[in-house]
Amino acid sequence: YTTVIRGVPELLVIYLFFFGGSGAIMYVASIFGYYEYIEINAFITGSMAIGIISGAYSTEVFRGAIQSIDKGQFEAAKVLGINKFGQFYKIILPQMLRLAIPNLSNVWQITLKDTSLISVTGLVEIMRQSYIAAGSTREPLFFYSFAAVLYLLLTYVSMKLINKLEVRY
Hints:
The protein is mainly α and 169 residues long. It has a single domain (2-168), classed as MetI-like fold, CATH 1.10.3720.10. Helices cover 80% and strands 0% of the residues. The chain has 7 helices and no strands. Helix 2 (10-31) packs across helix 3 and helix 6 packs antiparallel against helix 7 (140-168). The two termini are 29 Å apart.
């Protein structure tokens, strides 16, 4: 999963979900005797695609964070007689989060900016709205600059929140 999704451009993943998802659902529906066209909601498709892309990168962050925890921590938890659920949630997870949060903030920033790619499905989001406004008013510099400021503001606010979370852990 992670190798395939991280090895393919994000735009291609969105196209595969948007155009291939409808075909896949129609194929499954045809097995049950339904042969009409089924259209998938662009928002749901885009959200799923972005979530799967973000998940592929996030799994690598969590994997790296768990691998960087000293093996002695796992052994000590086992020696104390704590069950596997308790080992993970009481000992490993807090240490993993401390190591993973800075890298997850990078994944979040990339995910935030990847949402602009959803505009190819016809869904109106910041970049699509900027494109429409720039075309109708013939002032592309203003609207694209405004979109840049919006993305910068979203990035700034989310980084402030993540930094507070980082300090907490």
